[in-house]
TrEMBL record:
Organism: Sporothrix eucalyptigena
The organism's taxonomic lineage, starting at the top: Eukaryota, Fungi, Dikarya, Ascomycota, Pezizomycotina
Cofactor dependency: Zn(2+)
Top-rank taxon, per record: Eukaryota
Family, as annotated: Belongs to the zinc-containing alcohol dehydrogenase family.
Listed name of the protein: Enoyl reductase (ER) domain-containing protein
Length: 371
């Protein structure tokens, strides 16, 4: 247990008035919640700030005013039915707040039954259905927090793994499954485009894909500007292409490297232009993996006829499984995944979210939560 008493109010960052006139404010009189059934109260130490939070800012869906879904902290209180085993433990609070898997008397959905609680049709999410991690004390469902971190991993490094890293584990896993189906010879290079390679998710995706399959994947990173170029190349990308050259130029460069186009294109960016370009970069029988979250009414710009004629696969990914989380933490502990982290303060959150909205953030910004 924490030696300090739990306060009744705390500091939090809130999104107010979502939509064109949205603002992000930091307030210091936000009530601290009490854990109910299955719940624990976590005193947060760090929280990552994910690019997907601009959906809440723009009003693209209904979110809690307190967003954030990459929280690391210590359990300071547990609901009556939870028991005391988690008290004092370091835990990770993720986008998946709860899934239907353990609901008493109700059969679990097919995704949960197959071990993919991240695709549960009845899931609830941190920062959406319940307040998120951009506050000092967050409620979490004890059944879905991540525990047992490698002790050598600092909390500010764990934070971006909880959404950014896990999502890219999910995305590279989709590429692996597709490539396994292609019947390529084992010594053939497999070209993987990561579009949006210099952001919080993208650079971890470049690291994971470059390290996968004993280096068999050659990663072409696409993003904009010198900082993102450097991070993409440091993360293991074989080549970097700046998208500001335009679609035709990006396609020309990808084809020059790959011949027919890439085997897989992972669209990490939420920018509509990245989705428009993707079908031009993938070879016949290739796969487009969507990760980014543009506005809900934006449709994928690939014709049904083209999908049929070229035998394209389009698939999406929503974070990853707890097994993938465990594998990712092990990779990080071995130094094979090294998120680029910039630590800032909770007071900086308004500027951080503005930086994400205008695509100015390289790597991941993690907020140190005040004690
Ligand atoms: Zn996220
Ligand atoms: Zn389910």
């Amino acid at each position: 247990m924490s030696s300090l008493p739990i306060p009744t109010v705390q500091t939090a960052a809130l999104i107010e008035n979502p939509g064109p006139n949205a603002s992000v404010v930091v307030r210091d009189s936000v009530p601290v919640a009490k854990p109910g059934p299955n719940e624990i109260l976590v005193k947060l130490e760090y929280s990552g700030v994910c690019g997907s939070e601009i959906r809440a800012l723009n009003g693209w869906g209904v979110y809690n005013p307190i967003v954030g879904h990459e929280g690391v902290g210590t359990v300071v209180q547990a609901g009556d039915d939870v028991g005391s085993s988690l008290l004092g433990q370091r835990v990770g609070v993720k986008w998946l707040y709860s899934a239907c898997g353990d609901a008493a008397g109700v059969p679990a959905c097919s995704a949960c039954c197959r071990g993919f609680a991240n695709n549960c049709s009845r899931q609830t999410n941190t920062g959406r259905h319940v307040p998120g991690t951009l506050q000092q004390y967050v409620l979490a469902d004890a059944r879905f927090v991540t525990t047992n971190f490698p002790p050598t991993l600092p909390s500010e490094v764990v934070a971006p793994l909880l959404c950014a890293g896990l999502t890219m584990m999910g995305a590279v896993g989709k590429v692996d499954a597709h490539v396994a189906s292609l019947n390529e010879s084992a010594n053939e290079d497999v070209w993987v485009v990561v579009s949006g390679s210099g952001g919080g998710l993208g650079h971890i995706g470049v690291q994971l894909a470059s390290a996968a399959k004993a280096g068999r994947y050659k990663v072409i990173a696409i993003d904009h500007g010198e900082a993102k170029k450097q991070l993409s190349l440091e993360s293991g990308a074989h080549n970097f292409i700046d998208y500001t050259g335009g679609d035709d130029e990006v396609e020309r460069q990808v084809k020059a490297l790959t011949g027919e186009g890439a085997h897989a294109v992972i669209v990490v960016s939420g920018a509509e232009a990245a989705f428009r370009t993707a079908p031009r970069l993938v070879r016949n029988m290739g796969v487009i993996v969507t990760v980014g979250l543009p506005a809900a009414d934006f449709m994928l710009p690939v014709s049904a006829a083209l999908c049929s004629a070229r035998s394209l696969t389009v698939t999406g990914v929503a974070v990853g499984t707890e097994d993938q989380m465990t594998q990712l933490l092990a990779l990080a502990a071995e130094g094979k995944v090294t998120p680029k982290v910039e630590v800032r303060t909770l007071a900086d959150v308004p500027g951080i979210i503005e930086g994400l909205r205008t695509d100015k953030v390289t790597g991941r910004i993690v907020v140190k939560i005040p004690e």
